[in-house]
Fold each of these.
Amino acid sequence: MTQTTERPSVANSPVSVVLLPTSATAPVASGVAEWARFCDGLGRDYELLLVGGEGEVPGDCVKTCPRLRLLKGDGRCGLGAVLRAAVAEARHPLLLLAPSPPPADPAVCRALFSAIDPVDLVSGFRAAWSVPVLLRVAGLVYRWSVALAFGVTLEPWPGWLGWRGHGFAWLNRLLFGVRIIDVGSPFKLFRQSIFDRLIIQSDGDFAVAEVLAKANFLGVLMNEVAIPAEPRPPAEPWGQMVRELRQVLVRPMFRTSRAVQVKAN
């Protein structure tokens, strides 16, 4: 999954943090404060991007966090709509997806920054759950068999995502060739430049998988690191994710080189 190549070092670069709502009732102020404290400790310039109306954010929250930018979306709801609006306005070379309020200590994201230099995208594998015993045994037998037959060493899963999580990973691997396991993890760090050629079509939770699928098609280098966070299933109906998956599979949209040049100017 990880490939080494010469790339500009960005591990200590300024970062745009996209605050992704974890639920409609999530306390906005507490999430902003937690991510602001984490970013203050990084020792770099940063901005917090929150998509929504000003009335949705307490006034004190805006006053106490000068790095917070309130962005207007395109009128559509969901994770994909939020991500699309934030990518268009992000100012810094790194872009971090940040569930808000965070389901784990934001400090777990330091592992993403440590792994970004050789690649373009680092995904956090939420490894708080242990792999069931029977699956660990089966995995050990399988890895030994592959090593004996082909001389290839496979790494064990760092944790358990649940049947739905691993099933979703295999589906994306089958349809799009994505080798990231925790496809739906909201903990992801990108070089902002990869979005120059991507158009995010999905409005809902499938948007994260869509970005991985299109990035993989474009030859973007990716890595995955384990973080001690608990996996949570998407809140939206499964049917919406299936519709968005089909849309990306049948009619994927990308930016042309001309569009990139126009944006750069």
Amino acid sequence: MYQSINFATPSVIFGMGSINQTGAEAAKLGAKRALLVTGPNVQKSGSVDRAVDSLRASGIETEVKVEARNTPEPATRIAEEVSVFAREMGADCVIGLGGGSVLDVAKMSAALVINPLRVRDYFGKEKLPARGIPTIMIPTTSGTGAEVTKHAIFLDEETSVKKAVASTNLLPNTAIIDPMLTVSCPPAVTASAGIDAFMHAAEPFVSKAANPITDNLSLNAIALIAKWIGPAFADGDNLDARYYMSLGSLMAGMVLNNAGTSLVHALAYPIGGEYHINHGRSLTPIMLACFDYIMVAKQDKFILMAEALGENVKGLAPYEAAQLCLKSLKALLRRLDLPVCLNDLDITDKSKVDRWAVDAHAEQRLLSRCARTLTVDDIKKIYLASFSA
């Protein structure tokens, strides 16, 4: 079979100290007046000053907007407020500097400068009619991949469910990935962001949307993250670990942008939205049950993942080798102090499963890529299997 492949990515600048290229990259985009969007913790780290100094050294006037939030995913109103600020200051470029939520706000606010409606009007696939003003994304965690994707995730406060804007018009112009910016990440953030990156590589790998390019990126990202997430978690000053985690996260982000996530993310949205759990920790309690349910469709790829995780599958029956992938993942989650099941998060109320299953099944943008066709009852079974390890 000859597969047709479309592969999209922003211009990528990767390397230690690459934040110092922010001004030069903004100038290439024709920026004269930039808005830099960040969060309070990043502002304290000194990274904002370095970016601003670089921008101003390139003759670009710069305003900084620090955005705080009280939920793991930003509410839609935050992006709307930032877009008003950008429009009023006459910004011709938006720079996001922070974790995935900050980058999502920056991407969406730049889009809203041009597109007139509210964020919720653009939820779904390819509903954003025009590109916004140019954007540069600079991540401070190794995880979300938001710097190279066409997605922005928000909490819809009207429904308490996380929802996505997914549009090629949201893809950043430039991504600057500086591993040094991740050194200040505490262990819990390193773990949750790192496992998010892992899922961006692993979940598309076993989906219908995979292609030879994303498959190779996926396996390399899985191997890098499996090897280096532990050292980065244990010692945040380990520069080798920070470098390779950033590289693995970048590769995984490219996979996410071009093959997309599926079952695990669809089932995590209702839980994360209801309990306000950060994104990485909302994925891990359901990961093993989801993977176990779709293994029947992609057993060969689970064997390849087991090998990328460092497991020796030689001499094992195919089913045993595929199951070794799940065993290895469970051990990795335990080592990183991440929840393996819903009970680990003190979520014990099974009466909510019916509602979660309906909400998750509605995420057909994601589930259409799942290797196994699932009914609402199938999804209920996965949730129920996720309460205990």
Amino acid sequence: MADYIRTRRTLRLPIWSSVVFLTLNAVLLVTFVVLSAFQSLTGALTIGIVAISIGMFGVAFYGFLTVKEIRLNRRQANFVDSVTHELKTPIASLRLYLETLSMRKLTADQRAEFYGIMQNELQRLDHLINHLLEVGRLGEIGQMGDPEDVLLKPLLNRAAELACNHHGRKIADVFHFDLDRAVIRAPRLACEMIFGNLLDNAVKYGGDSPRVDVAARVLNRGRLQVSVLDNGVGVPSDMRRKIFRLFVRGGDELHRKQSGTGLGLYIVRTLVHILRGRVSVRARADGPGSVFEITLPGTLLDDAKPPAGAGS
């Protein structure tokens, strides 16, 4: 929540700027009156023009800060609505199934089905709570431990598996991989969070039958580019920069079809920047959907020298 805390602190800026501008205008007004009394018309006119200019700038600047705060408050309200919904839904579901289990006699198959549903709801709660906790310690996660050579293919396979399990899909029906044999030079936990959030979003916001294509290419100068293509409705051009901000989600909570908190892409962007990489989004050229591109430190995998501690 570091950026959120910093944003709250900026409330001091419009307050102090207003005080400064009002003080300057008062001083200039007094000067204007004094010069007018001594019939120094040229000096009085100059002071008057400066006072009006400063006043107009102050009003415009204060208006800009006010609009910025209104937009932040709106995003925070959407965030509270979404988190409330995300928490209430699994809790209500768990309560219903527990009451059913305690009040009715069920067959072994029915009990097994109920236990499976309850396990999925608990995982959903755990996923949300972890998201909220992760935002508060992104800086620590990005710097956690020394960078290591993380094998790309197992990393993406694991992220895809978790995303499909989360949304009740089969990985073979959703994901297609076209990857260079590569490693990412970064802390493992940061990599897992980056691609876990990105692939989960690709499945969540894909089409009715989501299809996600993941490609990875090693570039020059030790850089690796990973592209994630989904088949959803895409991101409007005016939202492509905003969606990486804290609390930002497209639309309004009352009319949105997909659940979420607006934290996933903020986590992605923050960790990518900590790792000195880049992330961007654009429209697909071959049909509906979006293309998320991430560039991170990485190299081709040398089969003769497997990376130490990279795992399989």
